[in-house]
# Entry
Amino acid sequence: MRRISLLAVVVLAAGCGGGHGTQQTTAPVTTASPVTTTSSDPGRDAVDIFVAAARSGSAQALWGLLSGETQQRLGPTLEQFRGGAARGLAAGVGTFTAFRVIVSERVTPEFGVVAIDGFRLVRGSRRRAVYAVVLRLEGSRWKVELGGPVKVRPIGPDPNAREQVVAQVAAAVEGPGGAGTAVMYVDGQTENPHVARTATKSTLYANFEPALDPGRHTVVLFAADGREASATGWAFTVEKK
# Structure
């Protein structure tokens, strides 16, 4: 997990931030230096272990990898987690195979984001997919953060869409409200998106001139609002002309 470069981060009001109409901003913020670890990429290591635990179906192993806030949301006890959310993680994240890390970055002093691109088993068939997850730093360990109040969703292109021309990528963020941080990655590269804010959500969009080349493209969006954060990832294809 490396530090995010300056100017790739934008300040936005996520959710009910009190904005009226729309406005654009690309104000940069600074972030802290990475935590010193024995690994060159502790974020990747954490997600590798998380996927392996989900694949094994071990609720106890998964439980130990979750942040304290996530445990409260998905538990709040190991037994309750074992009887519910653990099965969902095993059926989802645990089916990823042959994946590669496309984003691993520390964004704020407390949060980082890791995204993988690989194959999932969906209704008996292997399908290529992107999965993005927030990591929360607790002490000296990066823990998986799930189910928080910040909501991030694609606007366009849609996940798995096949388009003739793509000159813009957009996503929406909703959250408790107040100033936050968001980062967009397209094909693993940080973008400096525009932000359009309304009273209920913030829309991030990056324009491309020329339009994106034919082929498969990945998008990852991280958003934090105070001490809460979320991320999403997806892919789409630009058809050959």
In short: Helices lie at 42-56, 59-65, 68-74, 78-82, 85-91. Residues 42-56 form the longest helix (15 residues). The chain has one domain: 2-238. Confidence is low (pLDDT under 50) at residues 5-38.
